[in-house]
Amino acid sequence: MTLMRALCVAALLAAVPAAAAERRFALVIGDKSGGAGTRPLRYAERDARRIFGILTRLGGVREQDARLLTGASASQVRAALEELRAGLLEAKGQGDPTVLILYYSGHAKDGDLRLGDSRLPLTELRDALRDAPADVRIGLLDSCQSGAIMRSKGVRAAPAFEVQQAQAASTRPHGLVLIASSSADEESQESDELSASFFTHYLASGLLGDADASGDGKVTLAEAYAYAYARTVGETADTRAGAQHPVYLYDLGGAGDVVLTELAPARGALVFPAGDEGVYVVLDASRRAVAEVAKPRGGERRLALAAGNYLVKKRDGDALLVGDFTVEDAQVEVADARLTRRPLSDDPQKGASGPRWSMLGAGGGQFFFDAAARNGLFPPAALAGVELGVRDDLGHELAWGLDLNLGGGSSTLRLSGVTPIPVRFGELGGGATLWRDFGLTDSLTFALGARVAFLFISRTFPGHAELPQQSFFTLTPGLQTALSWQFTQRLSAVLRGRLNYLFYNVDKPQNLGFFEAALGVDYAFGL
Predict the structure, then answer these.
(1) CATH class for domain 269-346?
(2) Cα(102)–Cα(140) distance, rounded to whole angstroms?
(3) What is the C-alpha separation between 392 and 526, in angstroms, rounded?
């Protein structure tokens, strides 16, 4: 069975009558950790968030009927399936046609989904889908050896479905379809350039519109699979692990295909005109790929994207065509004539798998917990500083940075039996921090780490020449946390907090705790 046949099958589906309103449910799972003996996946959870967003925005799944699980255990997956089962039974009782979609991105090995330290047998998952009270059940698995779920009659390692043409309006599709990103003995591969797994990236691109071979504004199951199969095989053919072949189990009765996404409801889109051709890569504000368009000449292609800022690039011989576009409520045309020609060395994704550098400028304040120190020796101080950060250098989602800070304050020193003495306090510090980033969304990141800093502190007493200037040098270990929001390609707003411990023994041994809070802007220049 050839890819040409898959495209012909997809074209036949345009003749299928529009389906009646149906209620759709989705369980989307992403897990980067497979427990002992596995290496953490970099993009599994991002892949899950992408598919969840597409299904709830374009796939007819209401958010109250969808569950997104990241870092979940097997028992939590089972509990989510039971929740959705209750919703399906309710919809069935109301006479609504139903569809259940399950997507998983993570580790699979020895016939199990590896969810952290827990295991969920593939056979259990397959049976749960087969027995779910939905008219149509669709399982999409993106993991190594996920094709093991197909060890049942009906498995096919071919790039097309055999979809019947509609014979009557009442013959709706019903049954089970399982799609796995690789066969039972193949590895499913991730790509640093795509910031995603190959299979999910092309599945997402297809669902956003590039798989709409018929041009009817709807992406069907057959179209999505044929597209993801062809692009995944083609793009992994020359990788070290070798070509990756998605497989499927098809047990769908009735007539016609299942529409996975409808592009018409999308409020905004990028439109690639009929006269242009080539492979266009669409990057989001953080310069991570969100979709691709493999466009032939002669047909318009529409990519339904969420509102936001995007960069589109296309290789043209020895040059690169690049353009920035904003998607809001209207369609935006992406014509080659609107793109800027640049040398290939200016590729905005170049080096995506290497270190990423950034410079943070921040201002804030310092506050000591001890009241005596706060009101005299160490008054609240204003601080300003810079930090050079490096990500994707150490692996394991760890980052490191070097910082320099300058600040000071003033107060009145009050000692028993002594006239209050004015104090000016100055501080110069530098530190090194090791932290880990936790992606909350595509634009929001939480960080937690440890810091060691050296401080040079001085005090003067204006109006009291008899009192000498005091200065000392000390060590301050501490913890650091930050919340950053990326609002353009290179700029992020950062709210940072530090909890420090000061070793102080000038007047008397007095080790002090203090807190620093700062607000700043981070500029990424290593993209």
Answers:
(1) mainly beta
(2) 6
(3) 11
The residues, ordered by sequence, that sit 6+ positions from 28 with a Cβ below 8 Å of its Cβ are: 48, 51, 52, 55, 66, 67, 68, 69, 102, 103
Q: Which two tokens stand for residue 478?
A: 């501490």
From residue 385, alpha-carbon distances to 300, 428, 432 in Å are 51, 10, 13
Domain coordinates in residue numbering, the chain? 3-12+24-262, 269-346, 356-524
Flag whether pLDDT at 454 surpasses 60: yes
Tokens read off for 203: 């599945």
In angstroms, the CA 362 to CA 342 distance is 34
Q: Which fold has domain 356-524?
A: Porin (2.40.160)
Query: Looking at the DSSP assignment, which residues form a beta bridge with residue 425?
Result: 409, 459
What is the model's pLDDT at position 19?
41
What is the C-alpha separation between 178 and 186, in angstroms, rounded?
A: 17
Helix axes 198-205, 44-57, angle to 10 degrees: 20
The CATH number corresponding to 3-12+24-262 among 3.40.30.10, 3.40.50.1460, 3.40.50.720, 3.30.720.120 equals: 3.40.50.1460
Close Cβ partners of 136 (under 8 Å, ≥ 6 residues apart): 98, 99, 100, 173, 174, 175, 176, 177, 252, 258
Most confidently modeled of 237-241, 286-290, 428-432?
428-432
Distances in Å between the Cα of 122 and the Cα atoms of 9, 26, 128, 146, 422 are 30, 18, 10, 8, 73
User: How long, in residues, is the chain?
Assistant: 527
Per-residue pLDDT band for 255 (boundaries 50, 70, 90) equals low
Looking at per-residue pLDDT, the higher value among 522 and 488 belongs to: 522
